[in-house]
Amino acid sequence: MDKLVIRGGHRLSGSINASGSKNSSLPIIAATLLAGDGTFTLHNIPDLRDITTFTQLLNYLGTETAFSDNTLQISSQNLKSLQAPYELVKKMRASIYVLGPMLARFGHARVSLPGGCAFGPRPIDLHLMAMEKLGATITIETGFIDASVKGGKLRGGDIHFPLSSVGATGNALMAAVLAEGKTTISNAAAEPEIETLCKFLIAMGSTIRGTGTTELEIEGAKSLNAIDFRNVFDRIEAGTLLAAAAITGGEITVNGVEPEQMKSVLKKFVQAGCIVETTLNSISLKSHGKLTPTDVTAKPYPSFPTDMQAQWIALMTQADGTSHITDKVYHERFNHIPELNRLGAHIEIRKNQAIVHGPQLLSGTKVMSTDLRASASLVLAGLVAKGTSEVLRVYHLDRGYEKIETKLNTLGADISREKYNEF
Ligand code: UD1
Questions:
Q1: For 252-371, where are the alpha helices, taking DSSP H only?
Q2: Is residue 423 very low, low, confident or very high in pLDDT (cuts 50, 70, 90)?
Q3: If you take atom 21 of ligand 1, which residue's CA is the nearest one?
């Protein structure tokens, strides 16, 4: 297994390019299943473990893929299976994204139930409800979701989500674009990744109104086309890099971003005492090393993202006072806290809120990654900790951060990747 060995105490400076977004790549790749002919060329796809896992799933279904230099070519002309097996689905919950497009194109899909998750229950009831609203019959047997539609064709319907779900909105969209007639989706997720999916589907020939809002209206098309498409930047990676600058009292510029999509996070960096400047496609952050305690509440977009919550907690360990970080999306997403405390932080958990008492001098030790963003928070803490920190089980981090240690080292960090054996 790999671990990251971080020698802390280096101030980050310089500029770096953001990678393509993982969370928009996944639904886009799934949406390629909707086109019967042609080859898609997807640009700016990050080279990540989650992308490899997802393309393996599509390959299993019969899709042909070729990936190099962040460009993915993909064609789904000759699918040979409509079943997503447990062995592949269990590796990544986002595998559920194949349900909507397969059902819409073939009238049938079988997808293994995704299992639990490191930070609490993650149900899929809203995905299934959306498919049923479009005329599907769903049965769950022997660990599989079996979805089919009489006559082979979904029909437009009215879908209302009682709570905002990125994945369920994506699945509903991918099903509705090939359904007969009009579909409405209310209380849809408005995350930039869903906006990107809408743009992708529109470029394939779909009619979607309300892109970027919580109310979507879709007119089903008879067929959709393969296209060339450039994926958006990863706003969570960009936010994590900015947090790395902030925690080390550094000064960096992240290029290739759309600051508009990161307003809630940038506002918090400013409240925390950082100087933030933006252009149309770059964000510069300067920190003098003195941070003001700043509360955040993670909620659906455009609020502060749950995927930045763990990194914010790491940052606030260095703020001069107490901050409250609440997660209203995933109430139990706090696996990073015991590990941050092992580095010397003083953080309490009360229900879905972390109370961070800063500033604390962190000192390097071995810590364990438990999930993707938890790992990112440990790396941030390692950057400021005295001495050497080792972040174990770094495969969690590799799911979602492209060449993270190379990027941080370019900015002046001292991180090496080493092999180790777990007893
Ligand atoms: C996506 C992101 C993930 C991010 C999350 C919230 C991807 C691949 N992953 O995950 O990084 O943390 O959005 O921004 O894009 N829920 C239900 N029933 C459902 C579906 C969801 O109750 O059928 C609940 C969840 O438990 C959670 C909330 O809805 O409390 C939001 O989850 P959702 O937006 O669906 O997350 P994902 O799409 O899985």
A1: 263-271, 309-316, 336-342
A2: confident
A3: 165
Residue 114: band (very low, low, confident or very high) from pLDDT cuts 50, 70, 90: confident
Q: Which structure tokens are listed for 373? A: 């963003």
Task: Compute the radius of gyration of the chain from its Cα atoms.
Answer: 21
pLDDT value at position 121? 66
| Ligand 1 contact via 26 beta carbon (within 6 Å) | yes
DSSP 162-215: SS--HHHHHHHHHHHTTSBSEEEEES----HHHHHHHHHHHHTT-EEESTTSSE
Question: 110-124, 213-227, 402-416: which has the minimum mean pLDDT?
Answer: 110-124
Q: In the predicted model, is pLDDT for residue 119 greater than 70?
A: no
2-18+233-419 with 22-230: one CATH topology? yes
Give catalytic residues, as residue numbers: 117
218 lines ligand 1 (CB under 6 A): no
> Domain 22-230: which topology?
UDP-n-acetylglucosamine1-carboxyvinyl-transferase; Chain (3.65.10)
CATH 3.65.10.10 for domain 2-18+233-419, yes or no, is yes
Q: Tell whether ligand 1 has an atom less than 6 A from the beta carbon of residue 168.
A: yes
The closest-lying atom of ligand 1 relative to the alpha carbon of residue 329 is 30
Q: Is 94 in the pocket of ligand 1 (CB under 6 A)?
A: yes
Q: Which two tokens stand for residue 171?
A: 């699945």
| Residue nearest atom 39 of ligand 1, based on CA coordinates | 167
Q: Where are the domains of the chain?
A: 2-18+233-419, 22-230
**How much is the pTM?**
0.97
Residue bearing the CA closest to ligand 1, atom 3 = 307
